[in-house]
Amino acid sequence: MVRRVELFRCLQGLLSVYKPSGQETAQFRTRLAKKVANEFNKLPWEPVRIRTAILAKNDDKLPTITTEADFVDNPLVIGRRFLHTDVVLNFIDPLPDYASGVQLIGIGEVGAYAYSDAIHKNVYPKSYHLTGMFGHASSNGLSTGSTIYRSPWRHITRPKIDRIIASIQFKARSASLLQAGLIPNSQKAFEALSNPDRLTKPLKPMLEPLESLPPDHVTAYWDRRPEPTQPHSLRARPDLSSVRQLPPALLCIRCIKFEPPFFILEIQVAHETSEFLTDLVVNIGGALKSSAVLCQARRIRHGPFGVENSLLLKQCSVSQSLYDRLNQLKSEPPPERDFESDDEYREFLLSQLVENADGQMDLFGNLVKCTLDKRIKELVKAPREEEHRK
Q: From which residue to which does any coiled coil extend (predicted)?
């Protein structure tokens, strides 16, 4: 009978969890870690191990060999086997406190570093549903903030809000070209926008310095500062204040529902911030000679994963059948194929664990669906191949 730790070590990869609104990221991380630890604590306890001891007696010349139960794994001695601090979680592009929706999480050391870094480097666009309300203005742009003033909104019609949204879409496309160093209505801009990768990845902001001017007059202040020192540990992250933040890129925006004073926007963005989401709704209200606040923000898609692929907190469970399936796999003879690395063997083991799950929504089922996705595997495999070449 295998130990529960072996099943816990298989929990390496990528998860898609639905985050509720009105909850801080740190609080949601603690709740999720406690949920995972409690699920593993519910599994059957490990069998008692027998400890062999050699005792020497004064009257006899030969020592005696005795066997007794080892109390190291006794629940009365160690208490709970798994704690929430044992679960390694890394939130990828965490949602603001007021927002809800799809939240990608790297779990385990492999997921927290390899998968998270791969998704950060290859930016995936994210889709949001923003619910706004005309006629109010608050201190922080949210409906929960203190109201500053009220304004009329009955003059706003659907054609007017569509006209404002179309102008925002045009300005966002022009700004993305200028930030990428492209001139609108040029051949390079046409080739960049006609690239099929444009549908899945935004244009990368990259301003080339002019040769006629010294670089100090062209680059920004944060680029003229000396580079931050590299951390001693390879896994230590640099200070976020020393990392240049890319500007938000608005790829698409449209109004999907208009019931004044409420309206719902569907946007597709990258490098977004919480201030960008609130300012977008507030500026639309100002452009329509009124005011608006953000009532609700819901992320419906992050790259290839949507709401239908996300788990609720109550669905993050580990069933007894998975533990029995792992015992069965360990009792069978090892597979004949050779694995190049431990990661490849772990992926093979995960696929075998949920082979007969019949689409059950649980922790390991979602882990396999997100981790073994073809697009995600290609992103993670590319840096590893470069390291092997070096």
A: none
Task: Find out whether 348 and 52 touch, Cβ atoms under 8 Å.
Answer: no
- Confidence band of 338 (pLDDT split at 50, 70, 90): confident
As a whole number, mean pLDDT of residues 223-238 equals 42
d(CA 229, CA 12): 30
In this prediction, what percent of the chain has a pLDDT beyond 70? 83
Question: Contact, 141 vs 282, CB < 8 A?
Answer: yes
Q: Which pLDDT score, from 0 to 100, does residue 198 have?
A: 58
Count CB neighbours of 56 within 10 A.
Answer: 9
The answer to whether the CB of 118 falls within 8 A of the CB of 106 is: no
Integer CA distances (angstroms), 44 to 2, 84, 245, 317, in order:
10, 18, 47, 15
Position with higher pLDDT, 277 vs 356:
277
Q: Please give the pLDDT value at position 232.
A: 37
**Residue 360 CA to its chain's centroid (Å):** 22
Region 125-224+237-302: CATH code: 3.30.70.3190
Residues ≥6 apart with Cβ < 8 Å to 132: 262, 263, 264, 265, 281, 284, 285, 292, 293, 294, 295
* Distance in angstroms (rounded) separating the CA atoms of residues 388 and 390: 5
Would you say 83 and 37 are in contact if contact means Cβ atoms under 8 Å apart?
Answer: yes
State mean pLDDT over 142-151: 94
The dihedral built from the CA positions of residue 41, 360, 315 and 298, taken in this order, carries a sign that is positive
Domain ranges of the chain: 4-45+83-119+308-389, 125-224+237-302
Reading the block at residue 294, the tokens are 């953000």
